[in-house]
Amino acid sequence: MKDLLQRLFIEHWQRKAISLLLAIITWLVVNHSMTATKILSDIPVKIINLPAGKTIEGLQQNNILSNRIALTLTGNKNVINELTPRDLEVIIDASNKGEEWIVSISKKNLISFNPDIDVMQSIHKVEHEDFIVKLSLLATARIPIYVEEPEGEPPPGYEFLGVWPNELFITLSGSEKAIQTLKTQGISFILNLDKISLQELEGLSKGDPHEVISFSVPDCWKFVEIPALFSTLVKIDDPSAAQMRIDFIHKEKFSLGAALPIHLFCSAKTLAYYNPSAHLLEAQGIVEEKQGIFFYTAPLFVHGVSRSFFDLVKNKLQMTLFPTPEGVRWIIEPQDLQALMHEYVIRETNRRPELAFSKEYFIDQFQKYLRSIRFYQNDDEELLLEIELKNNNMLIVPKKAHP
């Protein structure tokens, strides 16, 4: 055994060492001479040295184009096989260029984020589809942000009333085309009610559980997506965003407890298809007449408002009948709205001075109440009425909801 090992490793060791060295050199040469080709998609393209006051269509604020490119790379097999789109970035120098040029990319334009990859040594050839870079004037403008109806659901026991402000602005810079498109379309901003906990609202409603509960929107929520200009979320820079709040009310129902006056509205156009003297409102069933005024007398419950708003409008509610060619429509709404709104704004400004940053906030809140108010004929059934024209009479008939 000892003799065998001596013959293998000791005899003629100089020749064997030279042979091993030559084998290693041959392997290295062959290995590095083996090439491969690979297509990498979604490679970012960064533009540097743009002339002052100029930009490029689709250029984001980090100077990377929103549209990425595909490169066909040929080079060392070991490196090429390991490459991913995250390893590379294309750098395009815009200095000393005209208003428009065809981009030609070589390995000199490639930057590697992987310290183990030497682009200049490992990549031999870069191919890509031609694309044109065209300079555009850099424009700056205030872009409207439209606050949409929130997604999600409010915590149990609460109703969503509204968001204030309804509109914000953000100052952006970009190509003339991108900025004009954003000015025309605006940016949508949607909050998520699922992020608000029951404990948060209960803590806010301890002072007066029958009034509006205002949840101040955290700063970390005040970001928007603008993919045409940014690859990340953008903070809203409008100072009005500091007052952004979501208003809630408790789910409550209030009994009107009084007869509701009825008014028949007829315009000059109405007379072309409806004759008031031919169909007189009849005092029957749920309708009574007192001193020439008709009243709806069935039980009526009000949902979708706070106690204070209900107390403000309950004696100003009226049912109005509108004859149309298709039949008679009806609506219940407060009368003398301007006076009611004025009273509401003064009262709320005095009651909540910390929110009195704008009377428009309380005007908007009053209008949201008008949109959210709902009427029920009992605890569970929304008020449904049918107006029938029979013989010379107009009848108001309660209607059952479909099961």
Number of strands: 27
Unreliable segments of 5+ consecutive residues = none
What is the terminal-to-terminal distance?
Answer: 98 Å
Question: What does the average pLDDT come to?
Answer: 86
> What number of domains?
3
Rg (C-alpha, Å): 37 Å
Derived from helix and strand composition plus strand pairing, the structural class reads alpha+beta
Helix content: 10-25%
Q: Which of globular, elongated, flat, extended, rod-shaped describes the shape? A: elongated
Strand content: 35-45%
Largest sheet: 5 strands, mixed
- How is the quaternary structure best described? single chain
Number of helical segments?
A: 9
Produce a short descriptive summary.
With 403 residues, the protein is α+β, with helices and mostly antiparallel strands. It has 9 helices and 27 strands.
Describe this structure in words.
With 403 residues, the protein is α+β, with helices and mostly antiparallel strands. It folds into three domains: 32-130, RNA Polymerase Alpha Subunit, Chain A, domain 2; 138-250; 253-398, no CATH class. The chain is built from nine helices and 27 strands. Strands 3, 6, 9, 11 and 12 form a five-stranded mixed sheet that branches. Strands 20-21-18-23-24 form a five-stranded mixed sheet, with no helix packed on it. A three-stranded antiparallel sheet has the order 1-4-8. Strand 23 and strand 24 (327-334) form a beta hairpin. Helix 8 crosses helix 9 (359-372). The protein is elongated. The model has no long low-confidence stretch (mean pLDDT 86).
